[in-house]
């Protein structure tokens, strides 16, 4: 080291002295002291190394742990948080309302909340309800007050809206023709100056607070019958109130929390949001003894008719023996309001992306709903299928509980339905009586899982086939000769007026006068006689005791059936083969029962009531019961009226609705 | 001079070590004390109040859920493992006070309980009470797999896990759902972005790494450490089941789904009919094999159908199952015959006095012409294979697969096994083009993993090729 020194460095020199010192120490100091010192030095060095290692290890372990714990359990999907609009503390809303012949729109703070410029649609008075504290749209309705009765619906709606809400009105095209004085007075009471004088083809906009101030009104009179008033645009400001003022002060319970959430979002449900005395949203009907359908899932098929759904769920949850946990509401589309209704009642709801169009869409929605139902309740052997426009009888579940074992045991059964197609006010009498019919009525029915899984689901009509699911289910390829059990008096009531194949006229003609059971706990009679063979025995017994009516009279006349009560009568009509329903259709027409297609038959036999007597109709010679016809009787033949072009088309389309 | 040097050296070294000692103290104080559960308790041993804390938290939790009438049961693997050792003793002494806290005080971060979804109503009240009792809780929700097959039903989210934390202990409540196929399912635990990743040491959870499938357990009420809890009647078999409970969702595979979209499903009548037959044959086969206790999985075309379209492939003609040769039982053939499925042919051999087992394959004739094939798989060091034999020529074929493990899945309303590494399995068998439906398939040449494996000696034909 010494020889190799280009620089006059101090270091090597110093090192040398260190070394010398050690050397000196080693040679001259006492061994013990030396040992102690080296020991200490070594120990310290080891401590240092161990410490460094420990720190590095723990560090790494901890780091890995953190990394992994996060990695393993991270959701792969990045939840992109939608940036929320900053809550504006603005107390004033700018409202713009436009009314004209072909277009209406409403904008709140620059956001369009209503825009309708479609042709041939949206005629009448458009109403929007805003929350007075938040400015959110709570309800949107259009009442075609050009047509009759729509003004009544509007009055009903306006009366249901809570005090303090902001109401916006605008007319598209025409809104005065059937706007009666009652409705005009309601509008007047809201503060409208113009409403009492609204006339043919006037344009009108109005913004006001229910039970409070008026924010603005504009009107344009129609100069002549053939022309419309000039478009009007109303721009005004609305002052918002505080949230506390806009809410009711119900006691803080789980139920009221649901109520509060609901009532701050939507309007038009009446007393459920009343501050003083709100209508209950929990019903606790009496439980059923020995309820055989307690564990049967209930699928409610719904679209975007939240008011219907509300009414339907109320009646369903009030039925004895209902089990809310088994109910699932399937909503066809991403509609918020139906979901709000479902949540109000604390039920579970599932939204369904709409695929396909019209009838096929309904059909696909049905399929998805049924599949989902059996997936969610894998133990279930059956499912109850309901629609949103049905009232449910108080003894609906009692009726099913008494009859469901038949569906399990009798292979010749296709379904149990709560609906009797021919059960009108004047043709149904006995709540304890059941029938077997070859048609599938739907409208509240029970489906067997094995039927669905093994037969229906695999070949359910695909979206491109624009078929009605119920029509498809009625086809012989699916039904395979099996029958449904129905009650004489229906356990459901079809109240829907707005629907895919539905309108007011059609509803009035075919559904309004349908009989609906309101008696609780009806004990069904002879449930066992509904089995395949037992039912034949029963029919033969009935025919045996039945009195043959006078076939020379006109069966459409009231006098055809004697003025008795509780007797059994039989009549024979001509029916050449199984599919010959010529006479039956005419008879159904004059009896004012379902005549759009054939319903309620069992082997060429129909059972109904007339003047409180059981009334049997046998098709001869196609029916096997023809043998019961006395030889002296000639079966009645009724000729169909000469077809009028065009007149037939309406019922043909309408027939699809009755499901 | 020398003395100074020496003192300097010593002082320097002492200083360094002192610094390190200080650093160590600091480190323990600020890092380890935060992680109170794990390392700290190990370091300090069990003299602290930690043990009691665990017992108290469990007791509080049990009080909470019983006040809301929620029937939970214990599935904690650590405690069940301890319980299993003393099971007889525990069963016999239901009410006697226990002398020491043996089970619920065992060191751990979590106690895991299970809850059957359908037995409670999702009341919000539970969480309010929990908060009042001092629990912090976390709810993990995710998509409902029961609706996943139906892409058009919007993602309804269901609660899969709850975690209740109190002091240094946490309760992990796993929600089990009943699914088609008569089994219970629990979901994976995945944290959403906004969730607190440090709420508990998630990595230590024993459930939630993967979804799992279980049989419906039989339960019994026992008293452990003076706490009444329900536990699986046979903790040992539950733990066994747990170790092999990983579940795969066929819809999980996006690829599988897109394949389904690309080649729309055939829904003609004969397809519907074939699927129905295949389904009932599979149901029968699963019942028979489960009764025998033979472990099997979906193989070949049936596995491809599951993976590709979550259904039976329309134009296949049989149902294929795989069984490891070590699970072979002589009862298989009579059991199937008893179930109404006669043996159609048997290829290969199992135990032949002086020869090794080779290329075993059983075929059973189902109703209406659908065939059930059971292939036996042989494990080698780096691969697994099964064999095939052509009846008329006696030629042997070998199908090679990479090694795989088994997972549960649901197929046509059955809980069955599939290889966890499904993609590799399917690709080995069908090549990279497995997505494209093929109507004609030759089992001797089409598979991409086939190897010619020689010819059976003619004198053995009678044994190795049996056709009925």
TrEMBL record, chain A:
Cofactor: how and how many bound: The manganese ion interacts primarily with the substrate UDP-N-acetylglucosamine.
Involved pathway(s): Protein modification; protein glycosylation
Membrane disposition: Single-pass type II membrane protein
Keyword Membrane: yes
Entry's EC annotation: 2.4.1.-
Cofactors (names): Mn(2+)
UniProt keywords, alphabetically: Disulfide bond, Glycosyltransferase, Golgi apparatus, Lectin, Manganese, Membrane, Metal-binding, Phosphoprotein, Signal-anchor, Transferase, Transmembrane, Transmembrane helix
A Pfam family the protein falls into: ILEI
Record carries keyword Metal-binding: yes
An MF annotation (GO) of this entry: manganese ion binding
Primary location group: Golgi
Localization, UniProt: Golgi apparatus membrane
A single Gene Ontology CC term: Golgi membrane
Known function: Participates in O-mannosyl glycosylation by catalyzing the addition of N-acetylglucosamine to O-linked mannose on glycoproteins. Catalyzes the synthesis of the GlcNAc(beta1-2)Man(alpha1-)O-Ser/Thr moiety on alpha-dystroglycan and other O-mannosylated proteins, providing the necessary basis for the addition of further carbohydrate moieties. Is specific for alpha linked terminal mannose.
Subunit structure: Interacts with DAG1 (via O-linked mannose moiety). Interacts (via transmembrane domain) with FKTN; the interaction is direct and is required for normal location in Golgi membranes.
The name this protein goes by in its record: Protein O-linked-mannose beta-1,2-N-acetylglucosaminyltransferase
Natural source organism: Oreotrochilus melanogaster
Lineage: Eukaryota, Metazoa, Chordata, Craniata, Vertebrata
Automatic annotation (TrEMBL), chain B:
Record InterPro entries: FKTN/MNN4/W02B3.4-1, FKTN_N, LicD/FKTN/FKRP_NTP_transf
Transmembrane segments: 7-28
Protein family (similarity comment): Belongs to the LicD transferase family.
Primary localization: membrane
Biological process, per Gene Ontology: glycoprotein metabolic process
All residue ranges annotated as the Ribitol-5-phosphate transferase FKTN N-terminal domain in the record: 1-279
Keywords for the protein's UniProt record, in alphabetical order: Membrane, Transmembrane, Transmembrane helix
Gene that encodes the chain: Fktn
Membrane topology category: Single-pass membrane protein
Compartments reported by the entry: Membrane
Keyword Membrane included in the entry's annotation: yes
GO CC annotation terms, alphabetical: Golgi membrane
Domain (LicD/FKTN/FKRP nucleotidyltransferase): residue spans on this chain: 293-378
Pfam families documented for this protein: FKTN_N, LicD
Protein name: Ribitol-5-phosphate transferase
